[in-house]
Design goal:
By secondary structure, this protein is mainly alpha-helical. It has helices at residues 8-20, 25-36, 40-52, 69-85, 89-99, 104-119, and strands at 23-24, 56-59, 62-65.
């Protein structure tokens, strides 16, 4: 899944699907026209491309995801850390926190996540 990529327009379109699924393809075209200013043909072209990538499916005019939003972005995050930091999460966090101070609540949330991970 980490190999799956979408351009910014595709991501905006995917967000519409994830927020409304299951959604009829005609309704999806209307929402993408309202939100993105896309013509119906553009919506159907992008939908087909995302279906071909295995991210969504269009079954008899009903569009649903094959990959959840959470799983898609988790894969993209993993890919970024692997490519940019040799797969080292501590190296990523060191780089991230060198430019942004973490709040006490962010530190507590990270600690909770680490503790939960240890328990598994």
């Amino acid at each position: 899944m980490s190999e799956l990529q979408m351009g910014s327009g595709e991501k905006s379109f995917a967000e519409i699907i994830w927020a409304n699924e299951p959604i009829a393809s005609g309704e999806l075209a209307k929402k993408s026209e309202e939100t993105l200013g896309w013509k119906k043909t553009t919506s159907y072209t992008v939908l087909k491309r995302l279906c071909d990538k295995g991210i969504f499916q269009n079954d008899k005019g009903m569009v649903t995801s094959l990959i959840s939003k959470k799983d898609y972005y988790a894969g993209q995050s993993t890919r970024f850390v692997e490519e940019s930091f040799g797969g080292s999460l501590p190296a990523f966090l060191a780089a991230f926190t060198s430019k942004k101070k973490l709040s006490d609540s962010e530190i507590a949330e990270l600690q909770r996540m680490i503790d939960d991970y240890k328990e598994e």
